[in-house]
Amino acid sequence: RPIILNGIDEFVHKGDLADRAVFLHLPPIAPEVRREEAEFWRSFRELQPKILGGMLDAVVGALREYPSVQLAKLPRMADFARFGEALGRGMGWRPEAFLGAYLENRMDATASTLDDSVFGTFLLERLSYWNAEDSQTKSPAEWLAGFNKYKEHKATTSARWPKTPAMLGNELRRLAPTLREHGVIVTFGKNRKSRLITITLLPGFDDDYSGATP
Question: How many C-alpha atoms does 7 have within 13 Å on its Cβ side?
Fold first, then answer.
């Protein structure tokens, strides 16, 4: 059941929604090609049979290719990704053309979510100093105390900076799906004394955030 959300500014700020969306950035309509609504619908009704026929041809091609499409790694909305890849091949696109465009779209979307988070941007910066596949487990209070040591960093003085361990945990839960796309795994657990948060870098930690100089 696809839903279309329309807006001018970037209004999808929840990582879990961004991870399930396809973002289209449309060019503005030039004044010389604008049309009144009545003219638009008249033109659309004339073209509607060809549009429907083209869509049905694309679906037939996708159904033909679908059994042969096997994705090495399944993204979220795996069935959508596989069917989209089959549709692309049925239209004559090279293998993995659709999948590559889809994954790039998702990466751009998750990057925007991180850019909108003061804490998320700070975290990626600090993780860029870790070694590949590093993993650390701490309580929310320990993580927050460690991050607050960077008092000279403008992020820690922001009004949107998490002020309590609970706020830190909530922010990490919100960002966890987005961070996963950039090679950062956040898991939550607990022991007898407190809750625990484990942050782990995957071997494919995003190159955009690796190799920084402390």
Answer: 7
- The residue written with tokens 């609504």 in the block is 37
pLDDT tens by residue, 102-130: 988 887 877 777 777 899 989 988 998 88
- Burial (0-12, 13-18, 19+ Cβ within 10 Å), 204: exposed
How many angstroms separate the CA atoms of 12 and 20, rounded?
11
Task: State both tokens at 37.
Answer: 């609504």
pTM here is 0.64
Rounded to 5°, angle at Cα 141 from 194 and 190? 25
CA neighbor of 84 nearest in space, from 107, 114, 62, 67: 62
pLDDT digits (tens, 9 = 90+) for 189-204: 988 888 999 999 988 6
